[in-house]
Amino acid sequence: MKKFLLINIWAMLIGFSLLGCQENERMLYEEKPAVYFSTVTEKDSIFYSFASGLKDEDVVSIPVRIIGTSVDKDRSISVEVDPVSTAKEGVHYKNLSKSVVLEAGNIETAINITVMNEDLKNGDVKLILNLKSSEDFDLGYAGSLKAKLVITDQLVKPSYWDMPLSLYYGAYSKAKHRLCIQLQGFDFPEALDYAVIADYMSYGRMVYSYLTQTPIWDEDTQAWITADWSPL
Length: 232
Fold this sequence. Notes:
28% of the residues lie in helices and 28% in strands. It is of the alpha+beta class.
């Protein structure tokens, strides 16, 4: 009798457990999808520098992602400019859409902004974007709903210089950075593209070869920059 009761109790517990799991799954899949910035948080800043002098305009893309599943129709992600932004539309940026399309079948897209090299002599400007809830999406992870883009005409040390660029170019300095732009014909992008690591190895050797013949003077450190590293 006791054995029979124990079996019944275990059966009931397992049944309740299965019902609970099914209910959680139902709530998970029926919950409204949410959107968030997938590569930056409110503590991060994205820098775009015109210091190379190679461009007067460029496009910055800030990835956004959803919590939820893809569907077979286009959906809209809403974004607004935070009023504390110092960047001015039509002067420092343009072509910013307040509604970004997430195409059918996708769970990730990007907010594209054209930045312009105008009126930066008095200092950097900041464009702060806030995601907004919409008919299609709620707001996702707290802390990943705001993105800050800093537009400047000063050189900005790439966030990935210490690793891995230092392996190919040695220690960072603004003087060496300017030389890299001069020899390469382009500045380092804000995010590292691992597909071009081999190119950086080649360019690093080119910078090394130049500095073995022609050291350059660094006004910031008041020192000569030489080929003082071993390129890979």
